[in-house]
Amino acid sequence: MVKVKPFAAIRPPKEIVKEVASRPYDVLNSEEAQAEAGEKSLLHIIKPEIDFHPIIDEHSEAAYQKAVENFKKWQDNKWLVQDPQENYYVYAQTMDGRTQYGLVVCANVEDYMTGKIKKHELTRKDKEEDRMIHVRRQNANLEPVFFAYPDNAEINAIVENVVKNKPAEYDFVAEDGFGHHFWVIDDRATVKKITDLFATIPAFYVADGHHRTAAAALVGEEKKRNNPNHTGEEEYNYFMAVVFPESHLKIIDYNRVVKDLNGMTPEEFIGKLKTSFEVENKGKEMYAPSGLHNFSMYLNGEWYSLQAKKGTYNDNDPIGVLDVTVLSNLVFDKLLDIKDLRTSKRIDFVGGIRGLGELKKRVDSGEMAAAFALYPVSMKQLINIADTGNIMPPKTTWFEPKLRSGITIHKLEK
Predict the structure, then answer these.
(1) For site-directed labelling of 129, which of 67, 155, 251, 334 has its Cα 20 to 30 A away?
(2) 8 Å CB contact between 323 and 293
(3) Residue 314 lies in a domain
(4) What is the rounded average pLDDT of the residues 286-301?
(5) Strands (E), 30-178
(6) 85 and 211 inside one domain
(7) Per the domain annotation, does 395 fall within a domain?
(8) Is the peptide bond before 401 cis (omega within 30 degrees of 0)?
(9) What integer is the mean pLDDT of 91-107?
(10) d(Cα 191, Cα 196) in Å, to the nearest integer?
(11) Whether 385 contacts 391, CB under 8 Å
(12) Which structural domain range is residue 328 located in?
């Protein structure tokens, strides 16, 4: 069972929360972050290279030092202020009229180390180390990680009660159109009840933020090793997460575009596809996949439905059932000779939030030869993969909306 605790968040005064809160560090490149960052934006702390003209290497010593300097400045200026006591927080997000309600908690480092916090993606050591440097230097978790957990009626009822009976501390719409809503849970009996209820939850599932999760947990583990008087009660034994009941979360498709057809003409390529797929020309009108094992392809100005034939996939295998696996095996590997999706320069990935129009645009521009849209993975599939200890292929899940950074920060020492 998982262990959580409340914490005294460092967060912006409500009048300036919209100015401070930012998109996460990994959804913007340095130039985009520099263009987007207002004076008080957290981007100056999580992407400090943007404070240099020209922009410097984000992994340079000067950038890391600037991050520490900016974090101190934001606190000195009272743009970030620590709560006087340990609380839990409700953080809700609205997109397309649908709102998902999560709790901001501190998750346990040991739970990550022992596999109670389950992952479904591989992490890269270089990206882990970069985030670890930020956590070490700041002695804080500046950005939350994004977890799912099996629904619990009592936790849901507590969240519902807070939202109904307390005024929101923050309530704003960001420039991308997504709504962000935030409540403080400071009633001591409710705080204790939440801690006790999570002690009955068997696992957390990393939805988004695998590198941040690994970095936060590994720094906590380092601090434990380096403390001869370690008791297990220190603040560094925990890191900040926003946890959502699985029924609230919706995974968006993650699509693919390829630069060439491996020497084939479009007609030859379609002919080869017919070995493994029922291919149907849908003409000029955009076509989205209708269900599992149905794919949409845009090629030569036209849309196609590709329905994988029975026997070409394995629905009894947690990885084999995934459409990213089916497409990789039957098209990218077999026909296009793209063997490693992580390293190949002939393929790129497009989050479904950008829509089918983005796929069409990249092919019509001549940059790409063909585009493939996939039916989204379900939360059930993600949990099944994590529970069986499997790893999803790269770029399988896209969660939206992203958690806003800067709404809460967790210090690793009281």
Answers:
(1) 251
(2) yes
(3) yes
(4) 97
(5) 81-82, 88-95, 98-108, 117-118, 140-141, 145-149, 170-173
(6) yes
(7) no
(8) yes
(9) 96
(10) 9
(11) yes
(12) 254-375
